[in-house]
């Protein structure tokens, strides 16, 4: 049996109509459950909750709200750069490309890329990859607005989606990884992830990555602790999710949002701070959690980069840099690479 066929058998295919279909892994895929991961990450001295758990429906909506906040510069700035690409990306493309997007979410920024493709090719083939079911909602919205769009959605982890894409067919892929989501990986996981992308790519494929840049500490800290408290709500929502899904009794009033910019490691660090000595029961993880006053639960890193570090990061994995675009203030970057 060919690799491609075998891979497709691991997924269930849902054909909605001739312009929309989804692939979703069979439930038999062996992964640690939410309850097991929470047991592992909270039953230790340096407690953490993996940031992928932010994105239930409420968390995804709160993140969309964060993207519109005056203090949260990354989204606005990336959109400003993407607009520059309207004239500057087409020279790297031809009509045989499709668009693949990792972590497509609400697909707002994607529209700028889809506009470029529509103008260039007339029609567009789009493969969003996202673990969240928000993918189905955003795909339906896109189809309403783009008459010549065909969507194949892959509802899976980034790694699963990339594996699915590998050897899928001969069509060239422009892989998008926008929003500086890469910054949420630890440096080691990030390196591995870039290797995974590189190994998925065929000669001729392109990869466009958005990365946030090192800048004034105050700008960074207010972007992750906004005056309306939306980022705080986003951070605390992870505890509500655990309450709802794992039958836990976190009292959200006993925690506060805590974030800081760690200059030496060039990253925003986000935590939930316990305001009192407290015990919390997480029934489905079989865990009684004891927290001391001021104890921190780590929830997210958001790394920021210098241009020289971006070059090194991509170079080390075997990418050839085609172009880096920046905004006027050098706050954010978009880099286009190919495989050497
Ligand atoms: C998804 N990710 C790129 C966001 C960031 O900026 O690191 C998540 C976020 N956390 C707080 N605000 C936004």
From TrEMBL:
Ranges of residues in domain Histidine-specific methyltransferase SAM-dependent: 35-338
InterPro entries: EgtD, EgtD_Methyltrsf_superfamily, MeTrfase_dom, MeTrfase_EgtD-like, SAM-dependent_MTases_sf
Keywords assigned by UniProt, alphabetized: Methyltransferase, Transferase
Molecular function as annotated in GO: methyltransferase activity
One example of a Gene Ontology biological process annotation: methylation
Top-level taxon of origin: Archaea
PANTHER family: ERGOTHIONEINE BIOSYNTHESIS PROTEIN 1 (PTHR43397)
NCBIfam families, per the entry: egtD_ergothio
Protein's recorded name: L-histidine N(Alpha)-methyltransferase
Lineage, top ranks: Archaea, Nitrososphaerota, Nitrososphaeria, Nitrosopumilales, Nitrosopumilaceae
